[in-house]
Amino acid sequence: MLIEDCLVGEETSIHLIVSGRDYLLLPVAQDHKRAGDNDTGPNTGGMGTYSPAEIVTPELLARIDREICRPSVEAIAAEGIDFRGTLFIGLMLTATGPQVLEYNTRFGDPETQVILPRLATDPLELMWAASQGRLEQMPLALKPGYAVCVVVAARGYPGSYPKGEVIILPAELPPETWIIHAGTALNDRHQLVSAGGRVLGVCAQAASLCAAVGQAYTACDRLQYASKYFRRDIGARQLNRK
Ligand code: GLY
């Protein structure tokens, strides 16, 4: 019998670049795990993200670092593992404090899409330094502003969904807005088609979260395929708190 604690609160995604006992905390992101607006419907791999997630105040981040990140890295080292790579810790921010939901030794998807654009330090240099055991020499510099990623899925995801639908990408994108392919392919006529549940990640960066969200949704509205589906409320929780 497995008895699980039902953790209630907001999720947040913490990513560390680890090199043995050294680590750097990357910008904090918040994912939107449910398929539907207002966190309704089934759980997915993630329907959209934004960063920074301001629910994690500097004080809360210091607590997360002290109570979760540092002990986790120390525990890995104490097992005799010289871990060099990405540690992604999924947290639930409960009324009694942050609680760990999961550990992954990989970057989150779609968290990566909003974390990496916010780094002023070259991420490859960071990873190379971590692999070489000289992370402590790496300063971590961040760009100001906000990043958002809206996952454009195939209607039906995470259940069954159609594939092979021809995708028409926007002729023009708003500034500082880009599209990352996830579940796409070329058919035998060399047309771009959908080939997965999460089809595209529409990303934007701007001085404010509101502007970044606006740019991303403009691009989402401009792209076309028959079963196009995306949440309309990525970032809304943070915007509504202001
Ligand atoms: N977005 C959640 C994950 O990558 O596991």
Architecture overview:
This protein has 242 residues and is an alpha+beta fold. The protein folds into two domains: 128 residues, ATP-grasp fold, B domain (D-amino Acid Aminotransferase, Chain A, domain 1), CATH 3.30.470.20; 96 residues, Glycinamide Ribonucleotide Synthetase, Chain A, domain 4. It is built from five helices and 14 strands. Strands 3, 6, 9, 10, 13 and 14 form a six-stranded antiparallel sheet that branches. Strands 2-1-7-8 form a four-stranded antiparallel sheet, sandwiched between helices. A two-stranded antiparallel ribbon has the order 4-5. The protein is globular, with a radius of gyration of 19 Å. The relative contact order is 0.18. The model has no long low-confidence stretch (mean pLDDT 97). It binds glycine. The site of glycine has 7 residues, from loops.
CATH superfamily of the largest domain: ATP-grasp fold, B domain
Give the SSE string: EEEEEEHEEHHEEEEEHEH
Largest sheet: 6 strands, antiparallel
What would you call the structural class?
Answer: alpha+beta
What small molecules does the structure contain?
glycine
The CATH top-level class label of the largest domain:
Alpha Beta
How many strands in all? 14
Rg result: 19 Å
Give the CATH architecture of the largest domain. Answer: 2-Layer Sandwich
Low-confidence stretches: none
Coarse shape: globular
Strand content: 25-35%
Helical residue percent band:
10-25%
Span between termini: 44 Å
Number of helices, where a helix is a run of at least 4 consecutive DSSP H or I residues: 5
Number of domains: 2
